[in-house]
UniProtKB/TrEMBL annotation:
It comes from Spizella passerina. This is STAR4 protein. It holds the Pfam family START. GO terms for molecular function: cholesterol binding; cholesterol transfer activity. It comes from the Eukaryota. Residues 10-133 form the START domain. Gene3D superfamilies: 3.30.530.20. SUPFAM superfamilies: Bet v1-like. GO terms for cellular component: cytosol; endoplasmic reticulum.
Amino acid sequence: MDPLPSPAPLASKLRNTLVRYHSIGDSEWRVAKKTKDATVWRKPSEEFSGYLYKAQGVVEDVTNRVVDHIRPGPYRLDWDSLMTSMDIMETFEENCCVMRYTTAGQLWNIIAPREFVDFSYTTNYEDGLLTCG
């Protein structure tokens, strides 16, 4: 098996993409869901057939403690009932990794369990964090 290429160029490109998405004007996003604590917006992607989503909420806690429950790691299995297994296959730096996870079947297994491999990246930005997988 060939070694994985250096993640630094990909991480840099991904950070720039996240900042560009974050900078898209509010008028281009449509509200997909809104509660008293959070809002989720979406817009058609120009890069793939599907939507880009962004979510915003305010949680009174230490930022990294909250994000530890979202990004790959042991806390994710505690709250995400659809995720049945998760392995971090390679960690490139503290907030950059490749992970493999399996989801549970849905609707009496009409939708079969699925396995995914994701590149996960989180970066500090202004007063918060940007993260994607």
